[in-house]
């Protein structure tokens, strides 16, 4: 079960329709898996605000950019700032 809700992502995207709920849920699941992999640990509960924001940013980005195509500009696989938000929660192995 996702820690970030579809309602939170809809607020992030300013959506008011239920038509894409399944797609939004898939984007949240993928973003949470990415965040967990990046920090090297399961997502904590309660979820820190920095991780919540990173998951929302990444989910929204993947929802809006559904194809791996570029029409001018720079290609980004992860929105600017996501790694910075997750960095403080990273599990470091020494």
UniProtKB/TrEMBL annotation:
Q: Which CDD domains match?
A: gp6
Q: What domain of life does the UniProt record list for this protein's source?
A: Bacteria
Q: Name the InterPro entries for this protein.
A: Phage_gp6-like_head-tail, Phage_HK97_gp6-like
The protein in question is named: Phage gp6-like head-tail connector protein
Organism of provenance: Paenirhodobacter hankyongi
């Amino acid at each position: 079960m996702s820690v970030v809700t579809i309602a939170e992502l809809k607020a992030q995207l300013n959506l008011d329709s239920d038509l894409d709920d399944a797609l939004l849920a898939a984007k949240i699941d993928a973003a949470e898996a990415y965040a967990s992999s990046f920090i090297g640990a399961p997502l904590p509960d309660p979820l820190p605000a920095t991780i919540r924001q990173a998951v929302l940013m990444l989910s929204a980005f993947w929802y809006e950019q559904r194809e791996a195509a570029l029409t001018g500009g720079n290609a980004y696989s992860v929105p600017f700032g996501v790694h910075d938000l997750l960095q403080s929660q990273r599990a470091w192995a020494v």
